[in-house]
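Run log, item B.
One chain of 132 residues. Sequence copied directly from the ordering sheet:
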Amino acid sequence: MGLLADVCIKNERYARAFDLLHQAQLRLDEENSERFYAAEIYRLLGETHLRSNRDLDQAERCFCKGLEIAREQKAKSFELRLCVSIYDLYELKHNADAYRPQLGEICGSFSEGFDTADLVGAKARLKAPGLP
């Protein structure tokens, strides 16, 4: 459901993405549910709120919940993706510099995979114009 929701987000089918992600959330709450993808579900939900311009505060809550889960699971790749999403949100709110240290910290914690799209994208955000 998360992968399908991601495609819906990219194609601006936000209502369908919300539907899929809410279904996924319900499954996360089921007993004996596999939760390895939970952080990504919350990131995608936040992205849907962010891109549909529905509720930036709700987007932030979703990202923070996902970040909490990723850190609990020690899922650094999901943590990186969530940090990038939070940075993008802060950029919309014109205070991305406030989140730059956290994004830099997670980028610096990687010892391999430097050419992955997520890490390359995160580092590009850290090299914004006018910054060292």
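Observations after the first pass:
- DSSP finds seven helices and no strands in the chain.
- The two ends are 40 Å apart (CA to CA).
Flagged for discussion on Thursday.
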